[in-house]
Amino acid sequence: MKLSTKAKIVAASAVLAIFIAQPAFAVDLQGSGASFPYPLIEACKAGFATSTNHSYTYTSTGSGTGKKNSDAGIGDFWFSDSAHTAATKRATVFHAPIVAAPIAVLVNLPAKRDFFLSANNIAKIFAGQITKWNDPLIAADNNRSVTTTIYKKDTKGNAIKDAKGNLVVLRTKTKKTHYTLPNKPIQVVFRSDTSGTSNNFTAYLNGVAPSIWSKPANDAFTTAFPGKINAPGNIGRIVGANGSQGIATLATKTKYSITYAEKNWGDAYGLRSVNISNASGNFVAPDSGGVSAFLGEAKQDANGIVTYDYLSKEPGVYPLGIVSYMLVDSDYKDKTKAAAVKALATYILSAACAGKDPSLGYVTLDGKFLKAAQAQIAKIG
Q: Which helix (H) or strand (E) holds 337?
């Protein structure tokens, strides 16, 4: 059947209208790197597309891959949970610390109740020095009176400070805890890939218990391990898996296991988050109030790189909070793409993304940390 001239004009007009209706400057960005911020990045896709007409794809491959891809210029933006300080880093690539959340110590134990571990005992467990769940040191952590400090929070879930800069304590509570621990070997699960989560976790262990965890932080857990990870007593008991999802999956399948990951992975896979001790002697769960209090004690240099005070005596800090760096460029060849990357960084940093779903466990940055992050984002170009 032949179309009339009028029908052809209508059809052509319809095609033209559809073409014009498409966003004139829509950009599809490609990102890769750390698995730690992946749940948040995925959750913010639709909102970013609605607010900017841009889109992105993010491949969760680990911080090590994010750094390598940024070196090679593969993609448009990259994430790493540890600072990229290697000589391979391109001079125009810099750090924008825009995602914050706690690393949770996660356990697969049969009794569904609060579980407590002191900093020294966490270090001893992951160093292979404590190997049974009913070890007297772990029993002492879980059969005692424990004190918890709860801060007053704002609408973003961050701890509030008064006019003098002091955190406002809502209440302090003390309770007795009792736990009959199983007489079972502790199965340790670690990240086998190069991981910023491992870097931050081993930095924490070295910071809170240097006599136990005597080696400095490293993206590779096996490199940072203070003893012989292949010693006879560790083989088959201390095992690795790739990525946050990988270790969460393995820990879920392995009874009496312990691992470390962003809290959301534990929630998704039915693993319990440990209440860990801070330098004041209090035990704190991995929540936004404790993490924001911890980040309030951190320092950020001119390059956006953050250093933490693991021995802060602030009573309610959760001393295992971290930021994930967006690695971005100050000299994109495609300036339209640069503008889209800047829009993405700004959106992820905002309450519309970071505070979109509190159940994911991420923290909305504010105060001096927010201003410093915004200053880094402004360099994108």
A: helix 335-349
